Amino acid sequence: MKYLAAVGVIASAISAVNAICCLSDDQGWCNDDTYGTPCCAAQTCHLFCCACDGQCRNETGSSLATDPFGSSPAQEEEEEEEAFALADTDGSGNITLTQYLAYMRVSGDDSVNATWAAWFNKHDKNHDGVITPDEITA
């Protein structure tokens, strides 16, 4: 039983290391001195700026995990589910804009908040003001 628990912990750690997350700083800037939109990816990302197709515009940044072998769709789905569960702080099964901004640690000025709010609204496919699990992919 201890062996299975250890394998689970190691597998989740490997999964986290394999994710490509292209995040901007708290002022909205990427390491390549461009403004995040809000993610710093060269391609599309899901709601949490991870599982990005391609590479990050700031891939030399020390805060990024890189994945030279690519994440499997199952790994990406698991990462999305974990991020969603952490962002859903009240356990309601959906994420409000306030919860999302807190999870993403957005604390910039109004323009930064507006960029992240627009990203949130892009993923709110039915425009009901919350993100549900089926809306988190790009």
Strands side by side in the biggest sheet: 1-2
**Computed Rg:** 15 Å
Mean pLDDT score? 75
What is the overall shape? globular
How widely separated are the two ends?
38 Å
Strand content range = under 5%
Unreliable stretches (pLDDT < 50, length at least 5) are: 1-18, 60-69
Number of helices: 4
Helix proportion: 25-40%
| Helix/strand/pairing category | mainly alpha
Order of helices and strands: HHEHHE
Please tally the β strands and state the result: 2
Taking the sheet with the most strands, its summary is: 2 strands, antiparallel
Description of the structure:
It is a single chain. This protein starts with a helix and ends in a 7-residue tail after the last strand. The protein is mostly helical and 138 residues long. The chain has four helices and two strands; from the N terminus they run ααβααβ. The chain has a two-stranded antiparallel ribbon with strand order 1-2.
